[in-house]
Design brief:
This protein is mainly α. Helix content is about 85%, strand content about 0%. Helix 2 runs antiparallel to helix 3 and helix 4 packs antiparallel against helix 5. The protein is globular and about 40 Å long.
Length: about 110
Amino acid sequence: MDIRIAKIKKNLQKGLYVENLSEIRHQCMEMAKEVNEPLPFYVLASVFHDIEEHWRTKKPLLADEAKEMEQRISGALKDVIDGFIENQELKQMWNSLNALLRSFLQVEK
């Protein structure tokens, strides 16, 4: 596994708190700039940016809300990253990205 992807996965395991989101977003953007198929990492960076902005502007951030977001998107996040590692077919990667966005947008309602 690429060391950059391993770092992203390691940071994801730490949880989706504001300071960590910034680091994960940065790592995803760096990956997007360096790989031949940047879409998954650009989408991940965009989702993490939106979560970070939402949580930075919402006072106070409730622990239950953070946990709900983490639970809703964790499976889809794993699918997107694993799909990239496994060099999934475009259709499957597209489905994983859509599932991630749906999960994120449901919490944002």
